[in-house]
Amino acid sequence: MTKLITMTQKELSRYEVIKRLIKSEINGTEAAKQLNLSVRQIKNIKIRVLKQGAKGVIHKTRGKTGNRKISKKKIQQIERIIKQKYPDFKPTFASEKLEENEQIKINKETLRQLMIKWNLWKPKPRKKNKEYRSWRERKEQYGEMEQFDGSYYPWLEGRDGNDELCLLASIDDATGDITHLRFAYDEGIIPVFAFWRRYVEKRGKPASIYIDKFSTYKVNTKGLSDDPNVLTQFERAMKDLNTKIIHANSPQAKGRIERLFNTLQDRLVKELRLANISTIEKANRFVEKEFIPKFNAKFSVVAQKKGNLHQSLTKIEKNLDKIFSIRNTRIVNNDFTVRFKHLWFQLGPSQPCLVLRKDKVQIIESLDGQTFISLRDKYLNYELLPERPKKVKMKVVALAKTKPSWKPPIDHPWRRWCPKEEIKVEESV
Fold this sequence. Notes:
Blueprint: H1 9-22, H2 28-35, H3 39-52, H4 72-85, H5 91-101, H6 108-117, E1 146-153, E2 165-172, E3 178-184, H7 189-203, E4 208-211, H8 233-240, E5 244-247, H9 255-274, H10 280-299, H11 320-323, E6 326-331, E7 337-340, E8 343-347, E9 355-356, E10 360-365, E11 371-375, E12 378-379, E13 382-385, E14 398-399, H12 413-417, H13 420-428
Parallel strand pairs: 1-4, 4-5
Antiparallel strand pairs: 1-2, 2-3, 6-10, 7-8, 8-13, 9-14, 10-11, 11-12
Helix pairs in contact: 1-2, 1-3, 2-3, 5-6
């Protein structure tokens, strides 16, 4: 009997790297960089995988309660004491007084997070670094980090009828190679997704991406910017690919890509003019087939260490249509309709999984313009309504694979928009 092992995407990616290590395709140092672990940890995981198979990459503490976890009862006790006796104390001082007067020992950083949650402490804003900026050394291996950004500029000098285009570019930090270029009309999520899908299909997943804090790449809303659970569409896609995102605090921090754009605004504009390119489609083909190979041959440098840290896609990750799609969460209404972008979607009476009122479903918009409604990894059947449906008191509790016993009224959307053949069958029941 085959025993199933439940693995997260992170563990699956880790297992693929360890398998490459066992096959001697990479060494321990390269595996450590890809997984952001120490060489010693890699050795221990390798030994466990050799003994236990895929189960060896699963952390031993999974499903176990942490030894240092504070009980809910104790947290409530601390909250009551802090609010009564030490409401205006700073976290460090409050932790000292708890231990001194109440014989309750709690780490000051743990108490700091609790007091923030209780609205008793407001974290101080980070100070901007006013010191001089030191030169950062290049990464050691190809694919270890990609610097990525977009630049608005009259790249085609108006020959396409547009004053400006946006050039999306990525450059390898270790070698200075241009890994990908793509012209677009803006730096929105759809052009960025198209860029990185092409990149991943061609080269694989980089270990990390260094980008700025533009709204496409990071949530900048006050109060949400530091919440790890609030992600942009781009951050969510990169998380699905197990690729690390690094946000730069200033343009100078990602100087390599900024200097690249200065060079391209001189060289590439002239190359496009000489080639008499006047459309964005021809420009994209030109930079990929002609410009990038010549540029890299002239300006790239040798990495400090040989090797390629790009990772191939796992079986789950090969569904790039789903990863590089725009996802939004909506709630199923009482009449089993879903509203999205001023449109109304009517869920059909027969569904691949159980659908209840107030269920949270995902609206998935693919890059080719298709719209899907997903619940528990199942695509639901729906019809697009021309207008908002009338309120109808429904006796159907849920939608499932079996046909509902409730007979909808004549003016219900199911009757108005279902094919006539299906209506006849329902009437005869």
